[in-house]
Please model this.
Amino acid sequence: MRWLLKHHPIPQPIWHDVTHRMWTLKELDAVQMAELRELTTWFLAQKSITGAQGLEVTTDMKVAVAAQACLLILNLGTSYFEGWVEVILYPGAFRAKHPQPDEFGLVHSESNSLSGESWLHGPVVLAWAEVDSELFHHQVGRNVVVHEFAHKLDGLNGAMNGMPPLHRGMSRESWAAALSQAYETLRHQISSGHAPSLNPYAATNPAEFFAVLSEYFFTAPTVLHACCPAVHAQLERFYRPGDRSHAP
Ligand SMILES: [Zn+2]
Model:
């Protein structure tokens, strides 16, 4: 990592231009931003980010995607993003090509027209128009980059099922209890016609629930804390914000 940063860092003007107005990063202090720049440099060296359907991918676009992706692993480390190399950007929403996605370990954001898709051991696919619109416009609980890369963390233990590999000292029972109770509450709100306290897409299945919870955790943590404090506490233990002892 240090060699990489020393020899191939993201040039500071580009890093500053792309990140200084990104609201998802506004809570980070200078030390955290420096660490995020290192991780983003690592990401761009290790992963390919290519365009589909003729989309030309600029350095700024790559940095914007990689920096937000690396926000998830800021206190986890690069090992959490191993086992795959490819990120594909479509210009806009794209169609799923796979009629039975679950069978292939695929999870995605929308049923027909997709803004993102994440393959177990495979690529992350994103609609650039969605990524771009979320860079500078705060949408509560919405961030397609966070969503799709949260699926990657979830899939680290071999299945995208709403339970990423938990850290030592965390309890699978406590995790499952907190998330399943909130999941059932959300499903009940929807089925009974009450206003859902979270994006109803989260009620699709446990994998989507974790991905959407991660979107709230990074874009609207106070909303998540108010609605589901036990879930917020579990995600805080997993993502470790503010805990510098595990910094890569
Ligand atoms: Zn999803």
Summary: The chain is about 45% helix and 10% strand. The first strand starts at residue 48 and ends at 51.
